Automatic annotation (TrEMBL):
<dbReference type="InterPro" id="IPR001179">
    <property type="entry name" value="PPIase_FKBP_dom"/>
</dbReference>
<keyword id="KW-0325">Glycoprotein</keyword>
<feature type="domain" description="PPIase FKBP-type">
    <location>
        <begin position="133"/>
        <end position="221"/>
    </location>
</feature>
<dbReference type="InterPro" id="IPR011992">
    <property type="entry name" value="EF-hand-dom_pair"/>
</dbReference>
<feature type="domain" description="PPIase FKBP-type">
    <location>
        <begin position="21"/>
        <end position="109"/>
    </location>
</feature>
<feature type="domain" description="PPIase FKBP-type">
    <location>
        <begin position="245"/>
        <end position="332"/>
    </location>
</feature>
<keyword id="KW-0106">Calcium</keyword>
<feature type="domain" description="EF-hand">
    <location>
        <begin position="500"/>
        <end position="535"/>
    </location>
</feature>
<keyword id="KW-0479">Metal-binding</keyword>
<dbReference type="Pfam" id="PF00254">
    <property type="entry name" value="FKBP_C"/>
</dbReference>
<dbReference type="GO" id="GO:0005783">
    <property type="term" value="C:endoplasmic reticulum"/>
</dbReference>
<keyword id="KW-0413">Isomerase</keyword>
<comment type="function">
    <text>PPIases accelerate the folding of proteins during protein synthesis.</text>
</comment>
<dbReference type="GO" id="GO:0003755">
    <property type="term" value="F:peptidyl-prolyl cis-trans isomerase activity"/>
</dbReference>
<keyword id="KW-0697">Rotamase</keyword>
<keyword id="KW-0677">Repeat</keyword>
<feature type="domain" description="PPIase FKBP-type">
    <location>
        <begin position="356"/>
        <end position="444"/>
    </location>
</feature>
């Protein structure tokens, strides 16, 4: 005779219950007391959707639904007077019938509802939040109020990318993303009139459905954003800053805005080497590398329109903000020459080094960032060369010019005057600027250019006869070598310093042996000043 309600299942969490005026979506199975079925929403494959307490339901159901939670199940017995009474429903429900309903509530909302936002994680640092017209990338799980999953960006393994606040999203999502930080996680509940309304989306979301989105924001930028520079660590000494056209060597870690690493030069154990300002790198990096010092560290944040755009590249998703933590190792310009800084010069400095001089010097060699490459001090011996003979890189030949014994100088050599793009495997990186701290310890004056041997006095008019010791009219290499050695030992002649004696003598002999038969005759033998300018260097 009276309404009977049996609560067969009540969920542990029940944040809200049905009140008169609420809109509900529920499934039901309707039977008579003998178990005969007369109706079922399950058979139609859709919930029954209706306002409660507005006379849209039979009186017993209007009362029975009040106080229900989403996912609650009730067994309801409704007497005839609270159902269809003495008239019944023709062909379906007889007069004065008692009705039984097995009810499962799946959704609940009210016209006065607003979007509900619950932030359950927020990063400690939040330098920027979502504003209208920003572009965001986020992951989400979309469920109905009863927990049924209808969509997930995680399942597609791709973020949802969109502008905020300009109508690209349902109104509730447009509203609820505002103010989010990158890394923040929110649970967003949206009533249907701020979602897909009475019609649903025509696919997975039915009409009048409340939607719940579990959202994590991964990325955020605005089309008006430029390159941002942060966390600069500039060395105390910064004599030069990079400009357009310079060539840089730098290390970097590249991450997305949520911290996901996509690339690192450190993992390859090799710097990234490039020109800047010439389009060799993405536009944002071209800009972000301008004005850096050697040794400087900085963070460069690049919006996607100055990075890899909507398409992305490799591990970089489309429309991604890029974060580069860089460390500048060195830079130079192709127009650079050798830089010489004199640190000490003796007061008595009359003899300056020149091409052909034999030099003995100590050096410490390092990269521009201070990394030590080599040192003669650690070897315990000097480095010895003939200046201008190609025994060292061109930049060192230039850096040792016009130096006096005892002088100390720092020589900075750009790679095109050093070891070039290839460097020296295992020793000098490619395209590296080199720094040499040099002290000249000894200088032996060389011979005039083109000479390997000179006389210290008058040349004998009978020179060939003096060399031809057995007077057979032919000079062999052994005779030639013994004679030159004797002149050097006696101080009458001087060989070019710094070269191997046997090689010099053999070269001199070969130049005199014009027919190449291993013998020099009086007709072949000529002094230097007797030679035409275009012929080989001679005595």
């Amino acid at each position: 005779a009276e309404l009977s309600v049996e609560r067969r299942f009540v969920p542990e969490s029940c944040p809200r219950v049905v009140r008169p005026g609420d809109f509900v979506r529920y499934h039901y199975l309707g039977t008579f007391p003998d178990g005969t079925r007369f109706d079922s929403s399950y058979d139609r494959g859709s919930t029954f959707n209706v306002f409660v307490g507005k006379g849209q339901l039979i009186a017993g159901m209007d009362k029975a639904l009040v106080g229900m939670c989403v996912n609650e199940r009730r067994f309801v017995k409704i007497p005839s007077k609270l159902a269809y009474g003495s008239e019944g429903v023709s062909g379906v429900i007889p007069p004065n019938a008692v009705l039984h309903f097995d009810v499962l509530l799946v959704d609940l909302w009210n016209l006065e509802d607003e979007v509900q936002v619950q932030t359950y994680f927020k990063p400690e640092k939040c330098p920027r939040t979502v504003e209208v017209s920003d572009f965001v990338r986020y992951h989400y799980n979309g469920t109905f109020l009863d927990g049924t999953l209808f969509d997930s960006s995680h399942n597609r393994m791709r973020t949802y990318d969109t502008y905020v606040g300009i109508g690209w999203l349902i109104p509730g999502m447009d509203q609820s993303l505002l103010g989010m930080c990158v890394g923040e996680k929110r649970m967003i509940t949206i009533p249907p009139f701020l979602a897909y309304g009475e019609e649903g989306d025509g696919k997975d979301i039915p009409g009048q459905a409340s939607l719940v989105f579990d959202v994590v924001l991964l990325d955020l930028h605005n089309p008006k954003d430029g390159v941002t520079i942060e966390n600069q660590q500039v060395p105390e000494s910064c004599e030069r800053r990079s400009q357009t056209g310079d060539f840089l060597r730098y290390h970097y870690n590249g991450t997305l805005l949520d911290g996901t690493l996509f690339d690192s030069s450190y993992s390859r154990n090799r710097t990234y080497d490039t020109y800047i300002g010439k389009g060799y790198v993405i536009a944002g990096m071209d800009e972000g590398l301008l004005g850096v010092c050697t040794g400087e560290k900085r963070r460069i944040i690049i919006p996607p329109h100055l990075g890899y755009g909507e398409e992305g590249r490799g591990k970089i998703p489309g429309s991604a903000v890029l974060v580069f933590d860089i460390h500048v190792v060195d830079f130079h310009n192709p127009a650079d020459s050798v830089s010489i800084t004199v640190n000490y010069k003796p007061s008595n400095c009359t003899m300056l080094s020149k091409k052909g001089d034999y030099l003995k010097y100590h050096y410490n060699a390092s990269l521009l960032d201070g990394t030590l490459l080599d040192s003669t001090h650690s070897l315990g011996k000097t480095y010895n060369i003939v200046l201008g003979s190609g025994q060292v890189v061109l930049g060192m030949d230039m850096g040792l010019q016009d130096m006096c014994v005892g002088e100390r100088r720092t020589v900075v050599i750009p790679p095109h005057l050093g070891y070039g793009e290839d460097g020296v495997e295992g020793e000098v990186p490619g395209s590296a600027v080199l720094v040499f701290d040099i002290e000249l310890l000894e200088l032996v004056s060389g011979l005039p250019e083109g000479y390997m041997f000179v006389w210290n006095g008058e040349v004998s008019p009978n020179l060939f006869e003096e060399i031809d010791q057995n007077h057979d009219g032919e000079v062999l290499l052994e005779e030639f070598s013994e004679y030159i050695q004797a002149q050097v030992n006696s101080g009458k002649g001087k060989l070019a310093p710094g070269f191997d004696f046997e090689k010099i003598v053999k070269n001199m002999f070969t130049n005199q042996d014009r027919d190449g038969n291993g013998k020099v005759t009086a007709e072949e033998f000529k002094l230097k000043d007797q030679e035409a300018k275009e012929e080989h260097d001679e005595l």
